[in-house]
Design a protein that fits this description.
2 domains
């Protein structure tokens, strides 16, 4: 989701800082403000939207796979406005044993 949020790193800095070594974990007003800001930005993002079940528009599932990763995008009517997407990088152990094959 972070690729759709402008200034994501700057917005989330107070939360990211909590993951640093030798930093005391204090979830205070600044972190709560960032959490509320992220909720708002995600919910109002034009990039991800819910499926319109009342629409007659087709829903498309596009899948791309390789021995390194799997990814999918769900769109409805407009491929430039995804409903959902997910990239998954496969475990290196798995990817060394499973190779794509071309049927003969």
């Amino acid at each position: 989701m972070h690729i759709f949020i402008r200034n994501y790193s700057a917005i989330t800095h107070p939360l990211t800082r909590l993951t640093c070594k030798d930093i005391d974990f204090e979830f205070g007003p600044d972190e709560i403000k960032v959490q509320e800001c992220l909720k708002h930005v995600i919910v109002t993002s034009p990039a991800i939207r819910p499926i319109d079940y009342d629409s007659d528009a087709m829903v498309y599932l596009s899948v791309d796979t390789s021995y390194i990763a799997i990814g999918y995008v769900i769109t409805q009517d407009d491929p430039d406005k995804p409903i959902a997407h997910l990239p998954v990088v496969l475990d290196p152990c798995f990817s060394t044993h499973v190779k794509p094959s071309i049927p003969s």
